[in-house]
Automatic annotation (TrEMBL):
This is Pentatricopeptide repeat-containing protein. It comes from the Eukaryota. NCBIfam families: PPR. GO terms for biological process: RNA modification. Gene3D superfamilies: Tetratricopeptide repeat domain. GO terms for molecular function: RNA binding. InterPro entries: PPR_At4g14850-like_plant, PPR_rpt, TPR-like_helical_dom_sf. PPR repeats lie at residues 29-63, 130-164, 230-264, 332-366, 534-568.
Length: 733
């Protein structure tokens, strides 16, 4: 009678009242002890459970199999390895080792500690394994990410004549989704054959499997088979939509859950906030934030992390995300990483490093994404000392050094010009992928080391790393920069054979390559092969036409681009204004320049003003060109003065040329091009004495390394090129 009352107390009045009743019981047997101990375990009070077990043993009461299985569950939860092995010794000593209940508890304990092989040995030793023990072992293998072994064990289970239950299929569905849709359908079919009733737990597992296999339509069909829903099922549906990049459908599912009367939990809110981040929608994110506060979940770490991520991705004001972060009681590594990654994406790189230091001071260890984000920040501020410090920290602490961190270091060192360091990091990486080599090749291209970029190709081949579209595009870019038609054609052939020709970055690279190599037929054919040309495709075609003197065709291509519904960008206008400059189409060039703001809502940058000055200067409209410089909203640079100085050379305007040279040298006193253009202007207007003085000034400032062969070039801005109009030599007395 007392034991029945004790059970009633634990179920209806809570474990504390049950313990009080237990302490007042005059006589207690193993059932009494086990009842309270089980109540502690179910309520998550594992430390009290172990303390009660110690008291039970001290009192002389002998435990039964159910007592010991509960104790093992507490050992698993608390990570009490020594305590657990002591219980195992007790089990072996008293002949309980073949008991399926205790065997299952031991398997579960070892698997949660990561000792899967030991768990399997225990399972193999069991003579009379039941459904629970088989399911526990399958669960252990799934937990260890040994999905194939879990599915094979199920086959052995069938051969042994042991019937699976709903929990078996939940674990099998979790394993099957990592082996593809066919395995998942097979498990689903077995579930039907065995006549297992479809409850909300199985529906959730099926929805998860189908959504992971990119079959959301099947996932929804399964969820509609019965009218039974709970918060876990709805959350799985929402997460499934997000995994399949159907963010608005995820939002709709969240609203349907609320309308159905099921209150979202912390996982639901975390998932829907991820959808807000991906859309992105700050307004919706703020609405969800207000509901989180109403639900009293603002202190939940997972929800706080999702809020930080949402504000960082959806808002231009990082203080919103920072305010949420500061409200998290005990930020974990995900909290810190969301903050640091968000700050980096907003360009506050030095602040990101400060937060990283603060994270370390709190004792939170970074994971791979934290490290790759902070390395990116240090690379952008060109801080070799910080990159080296982080690299040393990674080596010293044996931090989470996976391929993403290695790739970030390769990119950082290459971005700082430390190519040898990049190769050294690559050689130390246990695994390398296409991103590893693409990062290096891209950086080499940016620094102008195009031939060195080609050296990456054999290293990739020797490392058995296949090119992807990004790496191939980098190598095509190197070929274009070198105007290497032969290498470019080889890469073109590879793109066709590998199927990478369909990548828009590869196709655009081929258009640019053939244009720069002077093969307009190849450029046009490459352009025509693109199914849906984007603005980069059109820019590449226009650039090739302009650089090869096909001005009329270039401007026709610009018209075709607009007719195709492609919105021109700032690069497009650099090209068409330059085309007008080359074709002496001044009024049309001015019309294009004015249309940037009036028609296309593109704010001209300094480069556009340089092109405009070149356009006017070539046409002899020097005062208009000077007025452009005087009235533009940007602070002039040396290049724009040098451009007008070049025009003064053409039209022999010494006073304006001298003024432009003076202003240019005030900005960049060490630019030899300005001296050369000024000397040429003097030579061109019969002032050889001043030309000699100018060349002498160059020599005195150490700007001429080889005075016997010093050519003067008139620089006029072009599309990644110098338009050399004339050459001359400085004379020295």
């Amino acid at each position: 009678m007392n034991n029945n009352l004790l059970s009633l107390y634990s179920k209806c009045f809570g474990v504390d009242n049950a313990r009080q009743f237990f302490d007042e019981m005059p006589h207690r047997d193993v059932v009494s002890w086990t009842s309270v101990l089980s109540a502690y375990v179910k309520s998550g009070n594992h430390e009290q459970a172990l303390e009660l077990f110690d008291l039970m043993m001290f009192s002389g009461q002998y435990p039964n199999e159910f007592t010991l299985s509960n104790v093992l569950r507490s050992c698993s939860a608390l990570g009490q390895f020594e305590y657990g092995t002591r219980i195992q010794s007790h089990i072996v000593k008293h002949g309980f080792v073949s008991n399926p209940v205790l065997g299952s508890a031991l398997i579960d304990m070892y698997s949660k500690w990561g000792f899967t092989e030991e768990a399997y040995k225990l399972f193999a030793y069991m003579e009379n394994g039941d459904t629970v023990s088989w399911t526990t072992m399958i669960s252990s293998l799934v937990q260890a990410r040994k999905w194939g072994q879990a599915l094979r064990l199920y086959v052995i289970m069938m051969e042994a004549g042991v019937h699976p239950n709903e929990f078996t299929f939940v674990k099998l569905l979790a394993a099957s989704c990592f082996h593809g849709l066919n395995y998942g359908k097979l498990v689903h079919g077995h579930m039907i054959v065995w006549g297992v009733k479809l409850n909300v737990l199985l529906k959730t597992a099926l929805v998860d499997m189908y959504s992971r296999c990119q079959r959301m339509e099947d996932a929804i069909k399964v969820s509609d088979l019965t009218r039974e829903y709970d918060v876990s099922l709805w959350t799985t549906i929402i997460s499934g939509f997000i995994q399949n990049l159907k963010f608005r459908e995820a939002v709709a599912a969240f609203h349907r859950m609320e309308v159905s009367g099921i209150a979202p939990n912390n996982y639901s809110y975390s998932s829907i906030l991820n959808a807000c981040s991906s859309i992105p929608s700050l307004d919706l994110g703020k609405q969800i934030h207000s509901r989180v506060i109403i639900a009293g979940l603002e202190d939940d770490v997972s929800v706080g992390n999702a809020l930080v991520d949402m504000y960082m991705k959806c808002s231009d004001i990082i203080e919103y995300g920072l305010r949420v972060f500061r409200g998290i009681n005990s930020p974990n590594v995900i909290s810190w990483t969301s903050l640091i990654a968000g700050v980096v994406e907003h360009g506050f790189d030095r602040e990101a490093f400060r937060f990283f230091k603060e994270m370390q001071a709190t004792g939170v260890q970074p994971h791979s994404f934290t490290l790759s984000s902070i390395i990116k920040a240090c690379s952008r501020v060109k801080s070799l000392s910080q990159v080296s410090e982080l690299h040393g920290y990674i080596i010293r602490t044996k931090a989470d050094y996976n391929i993403a961190v290695g790739n970030a270091l390769v990119d950082a060192y290459a971005g700082l010009g430390m190519i040898d360091n990049s190769w050294r990091v690559i050689s130390m990486m246990s695994h390398r992928d296409a991103i590893t080599y693409t990062s290096l090749a891209t950086r080499l291209n940016q620094m102008g080391y195009h031939e060195m970029a080609f050296n990456v190709i054999p290293r990739m081949y020797n490392d058995n790393v296949e090119m992807d579209g990004f790496s191939l595009a980098s190598f095509i870019s190197a070929s274009a920069a070198l105007a290497s038609t032969e290498t470019g054609k080889q890469l073109h052939c590879h793109s066709v054979k590998s199927g990478l020709r369909r990548w828009i970055s590869v196709s655009n690279g081929l258009v640019d390559l053939y244009g720069k190599c002077g093969c307009l037929t190849g450029a046009q054919r490459a352009f025509q092969d693109i199914t849906e040309p984007d603005v980069v495709s059109w820019n590449g075609l226009i650039s090739g036409l302009v650089s090869n003197g096909r001005i009329s065709s270039a401007l026709s291509a610009f018209d075709d681009m607009r007719l195709a519904g492609i919105k021109p960008d700032s690069v497009t206008f650099l090209l068409v204004i330059f085309a007008c400059s080359r074709g002496r189409l001044v009024d049309l060039g001015l019309e294009y320049f004015q249309s940037m703001t009036k028609v296309h809502d593109i704010e001209p940058q300094l480069d556009h003003y340089v092109r405009l000055v070149d356009l006017l200067g070539r046409a002899g409209r020097l005062e208009e060109a000077r007025e452009v410089i005087e009235t533009m909203s940007f602070k002039p640079n040396a290049l724009i003065y040098k451009t007008l100085l070049g025009a003064c050379n053409i039209h022999k305007n010494v006073p304006l040329g001298e003024d432009m040279a003076r202003r240019g040298l005030e900005i960049d006193p060490s630019d030899p091009g300005i001296y050369r253009l000024l000397a040429h202007l003097y030579d061109n207007t019969g002032r050889s004495d001043l030309a000699e003085k100018t060349c002498l000034a160059m020599t005195e400032r150490g700007l001429i390394k080889n005075p016997d062969n010093n050519k003067v070039h008139l620089f006029v801005v072009g599309h990644d090129e110098n338009d050399v109009l004339e050459e001359n030599r400085c004379s020295y007395s």
